[in-house]
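Quick start: read one record
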Amino acid sequence: MSQVLTLPPWALRLGRLAVPPRYWVMAGQATVSATNFLTNIFIAKLCGLATFGEYSAWQLVLLLALALQGAVITQPMQVVLGTLAARHRGAYGQLVLGGQLAFSGLAVAVTALGASLLPQAATVLPAFAVLLAAAGCQDTLRKLLLAEGKVQAALAGDVLSAGGQLLVLGLLALRPAPAALADVVWAVGLTTLPALLVGGGALGAWPSLGGLRRYGRRHWRQARWLVPTALLQWGSANVLLVFAGWVGSPVMLGVLRLTQTAMGVFNLGLQAVENYALPRLSQSFHAAPAKFAAQRAALTKKMLLAAGPLLALLALAAGPLVARFGPAGGAQYADLLRWCCVLYVVILLVYPLRLTVRLLGDSRHYFGGYVLSIAASLASVRWLTGHYQASGVVLGWLLAQLVLGAYWAWAVRRVAAGA
């Protein structure tokens, strides 16, 4: 059974603004990323670095849960939804929501079990359970709305959540006593709940597992290889950074994290492209191959035109930028920024192949590419960091992208030849 909820008037007016959908998607992704960035800075100032370190540990658990959720719930949905007839999309959307509730319940239970081994986690666990469930549900609702073309409603939920979160944290900052970690986690979790009402109202559906028999196998065919891939991606990023800190120094690790933050705007754009473009590409992938090829070529051109000049400018200005804003001492840090620009050019070139591989019959080539790329980067990172220090880690990531691109190009060509 589904029930349509009524959106507030301001959200309806937002939906009538004549702005191309891709800009709504970018605005929503920017809102989420900017809020996360500001929240981290705010908590560090509000609670001190020790408390912020504890918050980061909980946040790492949340990111792992969201990575697994993406593999099990939302990434398969982005492919499957575009292949369904309009009359079946509502029932499948209800199944996705039902699966999300089940996943959130399981994630909370596993986290509670793990936290029971750490007595100091007891005061934060209830708040984190709310945050974990609310953040997971909001992420799935947002991606369902984007896949259905309801991009304004997705933005409305993001703005509501972000505004409430920053407002409550601001009120906590006005208190004379420092905020406890549990207070901060409660603030972040509870301010997500209104966004769920907006997103659920715009989607007009309630969770249900009634479509499991009809759509479950098709969904799982996409998800089965994405689960180990999500674990591999999450682990590989952290392993490379930990290795850099181990063989180098905390300074090397800090510089790498700072560089990642500086390059985050490009990750924002790539995530927005995948959330918006993948469901539309899936509609033409099987039904109209020529149209799909044209759409993918146009997408590649737009990505390069949008990001290429910025990356070139950033590489040319790396020296003055590092001298003005970066740590002392550095030519090696300017080189690090330049290598990151090269890395993102390669990522842009490989990204259309990534989207194509996501649309194949199953995800084994998607997973296989990451296995090969991570193996290549881990095998070379000791030599690279020994010769190039922090830049060696970026060169390891660059090597991983080249291996990914080569393998995925081979996989796409092989599948096309056998079709």
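The two ends are 40 Å apart (CA to CA).
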